[in-house]
Amino acid sequence: MGDILIGTCSWTDKALVGSGWYPPGRRDAEGRLRHYAERFPVVEVDATYYALPSTRNSTLWAERTPDGFRFDVKAFSLLTGHPTRTAALPADLRDRDTADPGLLDEIWHRFSEALRPLREAGRLGTLLFQFPPWFAPGPRAEAVLHRTRRRADGWPVAVEFRHPDWWREARRARTTALLTDLDAAAVAVDMAQDLPASIPPLTPVTSGDLAVVRFHGRSPAWGSGSKEDRFRHTYRDDELAEWRPRLLSLADRVTELHVLFNNCCADAAVRAAEAMCDRMRPAAHRQDATG
């Protein structure tokens, strides 16, 4: 069975920082990360979606975490076709056409180079390419995926689709085959299942090295409300329990399984991650004094 690493999507979310989960004396940047990494073995970096990472931060993240800790890093918005503020681009690139493939190549170069210290320290889990809800399956989308994978040649990649057609029954086998051919881990999701944009809780394995599951909560406001509305959900024990056999099945087929909670309201994500760690013991790995 592969290692099961459980954590959250961000350790710096304002709601988490303001919740009181971080104890006094550990509320600065270094203290927060060290405190988090003592309790969980994996975290998702979401800030890199909004702005390019820096070499300095990658180096500090590696220095402040133990061996075996993993960072799953979300791809910069422009790399996945999301609207991107001009101010988020480096100053010398702000007059470039955002549809220019040459610009995307340069953005990728700067993005990946900034993450190299993290990768060289053995802390990089995967790069998460989360594509937008309007990224529907078809030849053009498949061409984008192939170009994305060529840019990221040699890097671990995970792909999350937000358009439900990718995983509908008629398309499911083709999507699985496509991601397998790209050597990209398919991201499974947990979310409300009665919405037009609901993604079914499927667990395809498209890479022998890694599988990723992201728990978004089960808010009925997904896709329509504010950020807090979309992700507000406290996972019940029975909701976590239904995922236990799925996670064990995934772990049987990969080297490493990352389970990440994205219900980022107050401390809901860390509490859900803690509860899932307890439910998955002894299979799950946790960074605390009990091992």
Automatic annotation (TrEMBL):
<dbReference type="Pfam" id="PF01904">
    <property type="entry name" value="DUF72"/>
</dbReference>
<dbReference type="InterPro" id="IPR036520">
    <property type="entry name" value="UPF0759_sf"/>
</dbReference>
<dbReference type="InterPro" id="IPR002763">
    <property type="entry name" value="DUF72"/>
</dbReference>
<protein>
    <submittedName>
        <fullName>DUF72 domain-containing protein</fullName>
    </submittedName>
</protein>
